[in-house]
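pinging the channel bc i need a second pair of eyes. not urgent but kinda urgent?? the chain im working w is below, pasted from the shared doc
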Amino acid sequence: MKTWQLRTSLSAVAVLAISGWLALAGSQQKTPASQQQSADALLGAAQYQEQIQGRLEAAISIYRKVLGAADATREQKARAQFRIGACYERLGLGEARKAYEAVVANYADQAALAAEARARLAALAEPVGRGGSFPGAVTRRVWSGDIYGSPSADGRLLTYVDWTTGDLAVRDLSTGQNRRITKKGGWPQAGEFASASFISPDGMQVVYEWYRKESKEVRVCSLTGSNDRVLFQDPEVESVSPAGWSADGKQVLASFKRRGGAYEIALISVADGTARIVKSLGAPADAGLSLSPDGRRIAYGLSAKEDPSQHDIYLLAANGSEDTTLVRHPADDRLYGWTPDGKAILFGRQRSGTWDAWLLPVADGKVQSSGVLVKQNMGPIHPMGFTQKGAFFYGSSTSLSDIYVASIDPAAGRLLSPPRPAAQNAVFTYSSSAWSPDGRYLAYVLQEGPYDQRRFSIRSMETGDERSLPANMARLFTHRFTWSPDGRRLLVAGYDRKNNRHAIYQVDVQTGGLAPLVERQADESYAQPDWSPDGRSIFYYRNQPEAILTRDLQTGEQREILRGQDMVSGAGFFSWALSPDKSRLAFLTVTGKGVPGASMLKVVPVAGGAARELFRVPDPQFLSEVVWTPDGRYLLCFRGADRNELASGNQLDMAKELLSIPADGGQARRIDLPMDKLRWLSIHPDGRRIAFTAGSGITEIWAMESFLPPSPGNATPK
């Protein structure tokens, strides 16, 4: 663990409190009665053990101390009790049920936590399937790793993305050994990476999605990496994603997004890469896509016209001749896939905030019954596919992130007060945050389930009152949003629910009303918008061609400030920030292919001129985030860990320490925070307080078994 660098003017009492918290988090030694920790400090230490260190037993021990702390509020005790249950559940121990029951019995007044505890109890009940004679679903944890892969038909292998390099990899589930299938040379040598992948029915090949800056490809190779070739790439197709193989291994099901916005379902020939368009869609099939085992029908999930946040499931003939509705319901329904015998589809349904798994019998393209509930409270999952014996593999992400507030001295490079959670809610996932211009409010993004269920929440830092804005955004790009200078609006890039339209929006902080300011043109997408000091123009990032621009909101006049080719080696930028007076632009960039790897902080005049390098770190370290102090004298950014230390599936933007760098040049200073996996930094108008997100999601792969009716293709695993 890092040692905190404390300002010498701190009182002895403050030093004692901080060092006590660290001692508690690190060594778990007994503390004298005169140095007993506050409930707030205990919660912080427990969160550190649970979320950062992954030491669940140590976290449980500290959470129990919260229950006995003299100054603990009922909300703090309820939160600690709930986290005890969550830790036990992750450990696979039966004590989880008792812990959740204690939340329901003793803290019913804490409505959100009690409701979440009841939901977890329902999930632990392992319900028996209804309407059939087969036993209830049994789930088992397979692995903690990347979820964008698939199991082999025999259940022995599992493909995934090795995020330390971006390579496609495979894990032998019987031995626990991992190996890379592709060997592209790491992030500095090639800014490319794999994504979704599917093992062929015979277990000999894998088809996978390959991302390049200038193109998206579908590739196929053997599981050893030999015979790697581009199966499909079309300059008119902006994005292409494989969705599985035909049973005979001759075709690959895929979804296309064409330049200009059209979406299509296609079948690609494995022999020659030709694509046959089966159906054109008005929206992406983002709620599932699956080819039946006999190759005759395609099931897909599509947003409902009357409410884009809800999805229904449809059945399409593989020759395009028929298209019928399988599942239409006021709830949100998402396709998980066909069963191995082709007699049913498995799908998820969200009602009352929970996701349940249902089995729907289908014969000759027609629904045979109303469906069977096979598993309650699955949570938002990522389907990965079936084995031949009927085990359904899926990915599950559990977020352990919270937003913290701390005080720093940027000039001295010191921590002035320890980080404390900005919100005490164990139910939600927290993303980016932003201070209001007067510093009285902190706005942040909450996520309650799948990635497209995010919303804004605004918290008064004076009273602790919190209110949520209406959930009228289908998807928020949460890397950055900003307040308008008058404090009445938020500026964010995203999609609205009604039109599924990508744009830069202003959001009214009182009503949640949306107004588009910059609408998508052709294949453009936008990110990281910011206001001018007078609120009459905005700045934003555009991906194609890559540039940072400014736009006058009254005249619509647009001007490029910086283009991607102006960066070193044309590598582009991945984080940027305008100085408080908007005269300078700071950005992070990386050196390109063929040169020694480095991550750099640069500053360029907005009016034009050469970029000046302020700081760099050699690969495999990296820089992430960048913000200016309100006086424009310093730049704050995170420095990340050695990429080679990161486990597969972890994001590369999870840093370990905070740096303060003089904006006019000079020595960078490290500000030690007692945690890592740091993201989404923002600074208070007083120039001292910062808000940031710490912690990360845990991605796990599970298998659900014993829920299919007995059949030759669905034999119960032994």
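so Residues 74-91 form the longest helix (18 residues). and The chain has three domains: 12-124, 138-398, 400-700. — does that match what u expected or am i reading it wrong
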